[in-house]
Amino acid sequence: MTEPADAQSRRAIAPVICYPTDTLPQPDMALYRRALATARAGESVTALPREAASIRVPAGSFLRISCPDGPQVGDLNLFNAADLTERFYSGKTRALHGTHVTQGHRLWSSFPYLRPMATIVADSLVWYGKDAFGGSVHDVIGTRCDPYTGRLLSGADYHHCCHSNLTRALSDATGLPLAEAESHVHDVLNVFMCTGFTRDTGQYFMKASPVRAGDHLDLFAEIDLLAVLSACPGGDCSAQHSSDAAACYPLGMQVLTPAPGALAGWVPPQVNGYDRSHGT
């Protein structure tokens, strides 16, 4: 089609933020940080390379996701520990906070609940910011590596991708059959993963993660959580993300429990107040 005469003026129209967050309830970060400073280490699990693990995190405690050895990214699913239908909603989190999240941002749950499940209180990679390629860390844009796309693109089956890892781990944690567990696996928070969109084609890209041994992400559990984390078969995702060739390392998850009284005044968030009448 021929470019119209006013093409440049159309392109020059300034964008408008879809969801202004001026009225969004803000977390009390000072309270959370003080509570984190008092927290003692509790239960911990390890997601082995190309595998996944799960842990239950009581409301009012912290979940520390850590990189104990070499550079490694992970795919995180979050559920209401008492109701798997309430799960992490990456799309709404992205709409409210942007393509990548860090300290001060919240991880929101699915409809009809739409409430904060967790708040990021500390991020040892907050220094990374946005690089010259438009890349940043901890994305809520990627979906998770999966065997269906792998089959589509390569014609082969690969079972240790993050979707399958999360399915197995959720099945183990809940006792659900694999097929039922799979129906609950959802789009992820790509912990430690460095990603963005190419400026020319708008394609999703990944690059070597800046994560190193000792880096961590601390989440405050706003409700009782079941966290499921896959140590991605792409390792640091510098080359490919569904492969036995990449160097892969474990990831850790640990519950940190604040001292009694450290969260005075905090209450868990209520489910969204919309009446669900939908105009009828």
Structure keywords:
globular; alpha+beta; single chain; 6 helices; 7-stranded antiparallel beta sheet
What overall geometry do the principal axes of the alpha carbons give? globular
- Individual helix count: 6
Q: What series of H and E elements makes up the topology?
A: HHEEEEEHEEEHHHEEEEE
Helix/strand/pairing class, anyone? alpha+beta
Q: Radius of gyration over alpha carbons?
A: 20 Å
Mean pLDDT: 96
- How much of the sequence lies in strands comes to 25-35%
Per DSSP E runs of 2 or more residues, the count of β-strands stands at 13
End-to-end gap = 44 Å
* Helical content class: 10-25%
* Largest β-sheet summary: 7 strands, antiparallel
Low-pLDDT ranges? none
Give an overview in words.
With 280 residues, this protein is of the alpha+beta class. The chain has 6 helices and 13 strands. Strands 2, 4, 5, 8, 9, 10 and 12 form a 7-stranded antiparallel sheet that branches. A 6-stranded antiparallel sheet has the order 1-13-3-11-7-6.
